[in-house]
Write a structure and sequence with these properties.
Largest sheet: 3 strands, antiparallel
Number of helices: 3
Number of strands: 5
Strand content: 25-35%
Distance between the termini: 20 Å
Length: 149
């Protein structure tokens, strides 16, 4: 999957993101020179873990036909730097699941939460490569995969 980001400088730092099928926004707060019109990149990262956790649990709950009446996940983060300036980003995930569940079923759901694909990626070995590209090389694609005008 490819995600394309387009900055709208006339609106501070408001940025449109698209994967060719869906579009969403990101921004930064007023202290950083924008108008806080959308989630900031940290919110997007944290929300990826929250959404993936809910969806992973829901798929498991459906397959097992568990008696769950409500499912919520809250993700918080704390960011710090060590003496060398390296960033330490800690995510805390809190699960709330209501329903008629045994202790064993709750324990299994906690285990399943740890198997969400985004959780595995975040705990894995992540590498970011950056290179220059021409405008045509980063041009967004339309939902059908063709180049947008």
């Amino acid at each position: 999957m490819t995600v394309h980001a387009t900055l709208h400088r006339a609106h501070g730092a408001l940025t449109t993101l698209s994967n060719g099928r869906h579009a969403w926004l990101s921004d930064v707060n007023q202290a950083l020179g924008s108008s806080d019109q959308a989630p900031d990149p940290h919110d997007l990262l944290d929300s990826a873990l929250a959404a993936c956790t809910v969806l992973t649990l829901e798929l498991y709950i459906r397959r097992r036909q568990l008696a769950v009446t409500d499912l919520q996940v809250r993700v918080e983060h704390v960011e710090s730097r060590d003496e060398q300036g390296r960033v330490h980003y800690q995510l805390a995930r809190h699960l709330s699941i209501e329903g008629d569940l045994s202790d064993a079923e709750r324990a299994k759901l906690l285990e399943i939460a740890g198997k969400c694909p985004i959780h595995r990626i975040l705990e894995g070995d992540i590498e970011v490569q950056t290179a220059w590209a021409t405008p045509d090389q980063v041009k967004p694609t339309a939902p059908d995969g063709s180049l947008s005008g």
